[in-house]
Amino acid sequence: MMRAQAWPARDDSPKLSFAPMRDEHLDEVADVEGTLYDFPWSRLNFADSLAAGYCCRVLWQDGALAAYAVMMCVLDEAHLLNISVVRGRQRHGLGRCMLDHLVHEARGYGAERMFLEVRPSNVAARAMYDRAGFSPIGRRPGYYPAADGREDAIVMSAELDGWWAR
Fold first, then answer.
1. pLDDT (0 to 100) of residue 105
2. pTM for the structure as a whole
3. Domains of the chain with CATH codes
4. pLDDT digits (tens, 9 = 90+) for 138-162
5. Which residue out of 129, 143, 151, 159 is catalytically annotated?
6. Contact status, residue 29 vs residue 65, Cβ threshold 8 Å
7. Residues sharing a CB contact under 8 Å with residue 111, sequence separation 6 or more, in sequence order
8. Parallel, antiparallel, or unpaired for β 77-85 and 113-118?
């Protein structure tokens, strides 16, 4: 398991640090998740991810939870299961910062490609993934629960080799 890593920052910029998600973070992570989504992951979903040995990370900004993510790595593939930024801290590059960190982690596990699903209605996330070099490779009909039934998922993937040149 990798140690917490501080993100380089200017003296006047917020201090960012990554750490493995732990049991003591689950209540706060689940509370934040509930503020972000109509159909949030439960505390048990996060606990199960920890128990399964998934790569679960938190991003702290000036000592406060700013983002979290869950990624599963198997052989040469990584699958991003959840990446979320606390409301009020969104649209400041923290999602991309977390994504870059996860790519670094995935490469450490030997992953060469990353996969993810995203809602077509999540325009901000889709734009971030597009800028990061993810390409749509398929669609999962009715994948996500939605207020009016189900919503499809766009399946995206990216090669991790050469990631830092993007």
1. 95
2. 0.88
3. 5-117 (3.40.630.30)
4. 999 999 988 889 999 999 999 998 7
5. 129
6. yes
7. 73, 76, 77, 78, 160
8. parallel
On the CB side of 115, CA atoms within 13 Å amount to 14
Cα–Cα distance between 62 and 80 in angstroms, integer?
Answer: 25
CA–CA gap between residue 141 and residue 98 (Å, rounded):
28
Q: Are 29 and 68 in contact (CB under 8 A)?
A: yes
Of 117, 144, 151, 159, the catalytic one is 117
Crossing angle of helices 94-108 and 123-131, in 10° steps, is 50
- Which residue carries 């003296």 as its tokens? 11
3-state helix, strand, coil in the chain (%, to 5): 30, 40, 30
Q: Is 68 a catalytic residue?
A: no
The tokens describing 112, both together, are 């060469």
> What integer best gives the mean pLDDT of the chain?
90
Torsion sign (Cα): 105, 30, 142, 129: negative
Alpha carbon distances (Å) from 52 to 40, 46, 49, 109: 19, 10, 5, 15
Known catalytic membership, residue 28: no
Tokens representing 32 are: 């934040």
